[in-house]
Design goal:
The complex is a heterodimer of chains A (603) and B (357). Chain A is built from 19 helices and twelve strands. Chain A has 603 residues and is of the alpha+beta class. The longest helix of chain A has 49 residues. The two termini of chain A are 28 Å apart. Chain B is an alpha+beta fold and 357 residues long. Chain B folds into two domains: 177 residues, Dna Ligase, domain 1 (2-Layer Sandwich), CATH 3.30.1490.20; 141 residues, D-amino Acid Aminotransferase, Chain A, domain 1, CATH 3.30.470. Helix content of chain B is 35%, strand content 22%. Chain B has 13 helices and 13 strands. In chain B, the strands form three sheets. Chain B has a six-stranded antiparallel beta sheet. In chain B, helix 4 runs antiparallel to helix 5 and helix 5 runs antiparallel to helix 8. The termini of chain B are far apart. Classes of the chains: A alpha+beta (603), B alpha+beta (357). At the A-B interface, helix 2, helix 6, helix 7, helix 12 and helix 13 of A face strand 9 and helix 13 of B.
């Protein structure tokens, strides 16, 4: 946004200087993520939705693998007529992306013929294929959960001899690590399997509604399509159930504000039959429903509820108090379903002709077929599978720490997966040779330096976009997934004082004191009537929605978690603001306009 | 009260335009449908015709007006002014005056609004808002009788006559009713369309309003606040607060209304809360449902005067409707269907992906 005042523009990739104190950042990332000179000619935008923080070296796998999978899906498998894949680059730790369009009409026609056959097959058989998908994904989850890290004892297991297996433990260090990486890739290929087709059906319905009802809000369209029994609500539902059981089993007194999860669990074991009943219900709920990450599944440090019980235990005391007061209500699923159907039939009634009504029925019907996937895949992929994936990598980190290559298990995430491969080779060789690994001298300084660089990168404010402003940007998928439109680009070019713009995700206008949270385990700090300002919300944030008056997030579009939950609670929400958590401080009075997507700091 | 020359507003309905004029018929229809309208009575077209029997017994003046060429604006102006002068100057037939006076008394103390209600309210003329006169804050029976004649005379406003000549509408059979209503002292007032006037979207109600009497808005003296409310979800999808520099109000004892500078604190503050906008939209929707077609409605919101706004006043029963007529601009436009059913639902998506995303 340098340049002269009359024509604001975005910086070119080549104009970005290294963040102060972070000069060595390039060594953290693979060469293919660096901006090339010819990249200056294209428009890139910061993918703050998936990557709101600087990338630790290992976590770049959450960009590399998904983009490899989604591009393959659109460009090579389904052969989408007008779009190839997405390219990504990393600068100062931040992930920028651009979409590759197909513009030649002949080429579009050639691709469209193939696309019609392949996409048609999936749409025609969606339910059957999706049932199969769930079984395959569950298989992948089971496999990633069961992967073990070899112990590397002094003498290998006798069974290797008696069963004449012939392969020693150190081999499985690499094989099992590779299997983790491979499974992560397979999971992402399946993640993208239905994604673009699912969103495609939604985009078509969305655009029809916008044409028929030019003033309809994005969220009204979303409400016609939204599922009711969405898996995303299940973790929170489980917590409510546990709160009820705590009261019923006479152990409610243990759940107090600020209680420590290990202390509560230990005390429950001493509380006879009631305590046992609660503990076994807790174990049933925990697997799988506590496999929800506190982020969106793109960073190793966004731990799951299962990893870090402070998050669910921060919500439990409030739910327990509500049960005691008779105030804890179930989600009114019947009323929600009736309201969804009322909205859809009201819009249908307002259409001009029977022809349009018939087309509306087809489009809405298709959306409702595809939406279970759109809404539920994140739980299976980004939450459940990915929580287990990072847990396995952490176990390999523990092996590297035990063998002295790293100072602690968590340091494994400061290495790219190919570097982890090297470190594991070192450990395998050392075990075989009977000598200590040599990696400590090599990797420990690298890890220390990268931690320092990451801290320095945190202070850098990434421009929302780079490169020349495109003449037209009407990619509905980019709009749906990232909330980026021509209007967004205009707002990026001309930021205004005291006004923070995002996507209006749930309607209404309210004012109140802000509560800025950067970590989900701070949710205990939220007071009734505050306005939540947070980087991103995930299913694990649901408990906080009972307290707040409005939600504001740095990232997310009209289909993001915060948007969906806010609509259900009927509270205003503005998502995808980019930097609300930086521009608002706790205690400031803010006005949230969920209709126009604007947040104003009043005092 | 039904008599020859007067009746209560609620005693007429949509079918009575010939007897009561279009505006009175519409107000009566609203009242019959249980919608809130000010209490008032109608002076029927029979009263007008009786008056004209005295003013222009053989119809010669009206006939001459009808014979003028559409482009003879000077002639129209001269002849129309002459006829208006006679309508205003002639005494009311005693049998008419003797019905109006007790009706005024039955309406009670306090100022009234005297509003023209022409029989020729075809869509295009209706959209010529303000061609026929309305008099606000009229006090005393004598003043009412004067304003009734002024309303009748407004049938011969230059613009109305010129419009009829251009449209080839004859002068025969024209008549004018008058509505006399208790004068409201609204906190806010304005208009609403039960479809978007900008895009034609039928799923929203578009509301415009200002503090005080709606005449400031209708007369174009303020940039009104505007709200767009979804009929389906109640969401407010558009909200723009105008800069309202003038306010129309009336004094407790004087005749008529006055325009004055808007109190500073109100100029940039919204004249409706979100809940009030939603309640208005809901009422608008009831009117639309009653008529089965989008409507163009004048509304007022009762409450404390603009200088002492009670923003959180109980509003639910305080919405009053002053006029409703069919929306005509978009109703006249035919739109090609934006989509038609396909063999398979997925064909919609396949076709969409052929175009650049």
């Amino acid at each position: 946004m340098d340049g002269n005042a009359s024509t604001p523009r975005f910086p070119l990739p080549s104009e970005i200087a290294d963040a102060p104190g972070a000069e060595g950042w390039r060594s953290m990332y693979p060469y293919f993520t660096r901006f090339q000179p010819e990249d200056d000619k294209r428009f890139w935008f910061y993918n703050s939705m998936h990557f709101p923080e600087p990338m630790p070296a290992f976590d770049t796998i959450t960009a590399e693998v998904p983009y490899s999978a989604i591009g393959a899906n659109t460009a090579r498998l389904f052969v989408f007529p007008t779009t190839l894949g997405i390219e990504h680059r990393i600068v100062n730790g931040r992930v920028y992306i651009t979409a590759n369009p197909v513009t030649d009409p002949d080429e579009i026609g050639r691709r469209a013929a193939i696309f019609a056959e392949r996409a048609g097959y999936y749409y025609e058989n969606w339910d059957t294929l999706y049932q199969g998908w769930k079984i395959r994904i569950k298989g992948l989850i089971d496999e990633i959960t069961s992967i073990t890290v070899p112990e590397l004892p002094e003498f290998d297991d006798a069974a290797v001899i008696t069963e004449s297996r012939g392969v020693a433990q150190n081999h499985y260090v690499r094989e099992n690590f590779h299997r983790c990486i491979d499974l992560f890739s397979v999971m992402w290929h399946h993640h993208t399997e239905f994604l673009m087709l699912g969103y495609g059906a939604y985009v078509v319905f969305f655009q029809f509604c916008k044409q028929a009802f030019p003033e309809i809000s994005d969220q009204a369209v979303a409400r016609m399509v939204a599922g009711i029994d969405v898996i995303m609500y299940r973790p929170d539902d489980e917590l409510r159930g546990l709160a009820r059981l705590a009261v019923e089993a006479g152990v409610a007194d243990l759940f107090t504000e600020g209680c420590s999860p290990p202390a509560v669990l230990a005390a429950l074991a001493e509380r006879g039959e009631g305590g046992q009943r609660w503990l076994s219900a807790f174990e049933r709920a925990r697997d799988p429903w506590f496999n929800v990450s506190t982020g969106d599944g793109f960073y190793h440090h966004h731990r799951s509820w299962a990893d870090d019980l402070t998050v669910p235990f921060a919500a439990l005391p409030r739910y327990v108090a509500q049960v005691r007061d008779g105030m804890l209500a179930d989600r009114p699923t019947e009323a929600l379903r009736a309201e969804r159907d009322r909205i859809a039939s009201s819009y249908r009634d307002l259409l001009g002709s029977d022809e349009e009504k018939a087309a509306f029925d087809q489009m809405l019907g298709l959306c409702r077929v595809v939406f279970p996937y759109v809404e539920d895949h994140k739980f299976y992929c980004e939450h459940w599978f990915t929580s287990q994936f990072f847990a396995r990598i952490r176990e390999f980190g523990a092996l590297l720490a035990r063998s002295g290559v790293l100072a602690e298990a968590e340091d494994v995430f400061q290495l790219h997966h190919t570097e982890v491969d090297q470190a594991l080779s070192d450990v395998m060789l050392a075990w075989a040779a009977g000598a200590p690994p040599v990696g400590a001298a090599h990797f420990r300084p690298i890890v220390a330096e990268r931690k320092r660089i990451l801290e320095a990168l945190r202070g850098w404010s990434p421009p929302p976009a780079l490169g020349p402003v495109p003449e037209a940007l009407n990619d509905p998928a980019v709009h749906m997934l990232w909330g980026v439109t021509q209007t967004t680009i205009e707002a990026w070019l001309r930021p205004s004082e005291g006004e923070i713009r995002g996507v209006g995700a749930s309607s209404g206008v309210v004012e109140g004191p802000a509560r800025v949270l950067t970590e989900v385990n701070q949710i205990g700090e939220v007071r009734d009537g505050e306005i939540l300002v947070c980087p991103v919300t995930a299913p694990s944030w649901a408990p906080v929605f009972g307290k707040i008056r409005a939600a504001v997030s740095d990232i997310g579009g009209s289909m993001s978690h915060a948007a969906i939950v806010a609509r259900e609670y009927g509270m205003p929400a503005v998502v995808g603001t980019g930097d609300a958590t930086k521009r608002i401080s706790t205690g400031q009075r803010v006005r949230v306009d969920g209709d126009r997507g604007i947040v104003q700091v009043i005092a | 009260m039904t008599q020859l020359f007067t009746c209560w507003t609620a005693e007429v309905g949509a079918a009575d335009a010939a007897r009561a004029g279009g505006k009175a018929a519409a107000l009566g229809e609203l009242a019959r449908a249980g919608l809130p309208v000010p209490r008032g009575f109608v002076i029927t077209t029979a009263a007008f015709l009786s008056h004209m029997d005295g003013v222009d017994p053989d119809g010669a003046a009206r006939g001459a007006l009808g014979a003028l060429a559409a482009d003879d604006l000077a002639g129209i102006s001269r002849a129309a002014a002459g006829l208006r002068g006679r309508v205003v100057a002639a005494g009311l037939p005693p049998e008419v005056a003797s019905e109006i006076a007790p009706a005024c008394a039955a309406l009670g103390e306090g100022p009234v609004a005297v509003r023209s209600s022409a029989t020729l309210e075809d869509s295009a003329e209706a959209s010529f808002a303000g061609l026929q006169d309305t008099y606000l804050a009229v006090r005393g029976t004598d003043a009412v009788l004067d304003r009734v004649r002024a309303c009748w005379a407004s049938l011969y406003n230059d613009e109305s006559v010129a419009y009829r000549r251009r449209q080839g509408i004859g002068e025969d059979g024209l008549a004018m009713g008058v509505v006399v209503q208790r004068m409201l002292n609204p906190r806010s007032a304005g208009v609403m369309f039960t479809r978007s006037p900008v895009t034609g979207d039928r799923s929203v109600v578009a509301i415009e309003g200002t503090w005080g009497l709606g005449s400031a808005l209708v007369g174009g003296e303020v940039t009104p606040d505007s709200f767009t409310v979804s009929k389906v979800t109640g969401e407010i999808t558009g909200r723009r607060v105008g800069v309202k520099l003038r306010v129309h109000s009336f004094t407790p004892n004087g005749q008529g209304i006055s325009a004055s500078p808007m109190p500073f604190a109100l100029r940039r503050s919204a004249c409706l809360s979100d809940d009030e906008a939603r309640a208005l939209a809901q009422t608008g929707r009831q009117v639309e449902d009653h008529y089965g077609a989008p409507q163009d409605i004048e509304w007022a919101l009762l409450g404390d005067s603009p200088c002492h706004p009670a923003l959180h006043a109980d509003f639910a029963d305080r919405i009053v409707l002053l006029q409703s007529r069919p929306e005509t601009v978009w109703a006249a436009r035919d739109r090609a269907p934006i989509a038609s059913p396909q063999v398979k639902a997925s064909d919609h998506v396949l076709a969409r992906f052929r175009r650049a995303l």
